[in-house]
Amino acid sequence: MPKRILQGTVVSDKSDKTVVVKVERRFTHPVMKKTVRMSKNYKAHDEANAHKVGDIVFIQESRPISKDKCWVVVTEAQAEAQA
């Protein structure tokens, strides 16, 4: 099964080798027929501490790295190659 790749914005980089990425999704509400925006924060592994707050990054599913970290930051080239 292929691993999911999501695009989001870094909202925190305070932890060592970890960034918090906010991923926003848009969908039409089934009853109200209005476009709704929902967001969720994911903790992602950033080995080099290269990404800062405000950066747009791609994250990919991976094995569990810690209690609540099971995503890894990937480069744009890697994300396009797998898409």
Structural class: mainly beta
Order of helices and strands: EEEEEH
Number of strands: 5
Which descriptor suits the 3D outline?
globular
Please give the count of helices: 1
Structure description:
The chain is mainly beta. It has a single domain (about 5-80), classed as Nucleic acid-binding proteins (OB fold (Dihydrolipoamide Acetyltransferase, E2P), Beta Barrel). It has one helix spanning about 75-80; strands spanning about 5-10, 20-30, 35-45, 55-65, 70-75. The protein has a 5-stranded mixed barrel with strand order 1-2-3-5-4. It is globular. It starts with a strand and ends with a helix. Part of the 30S ribosomal subunit.
Main attributes?
RNA-binding, single chain, OB fold (Dihydrolipoamide Acetyltransferase, E2P), five-stranded mixed barrel, 83 residues
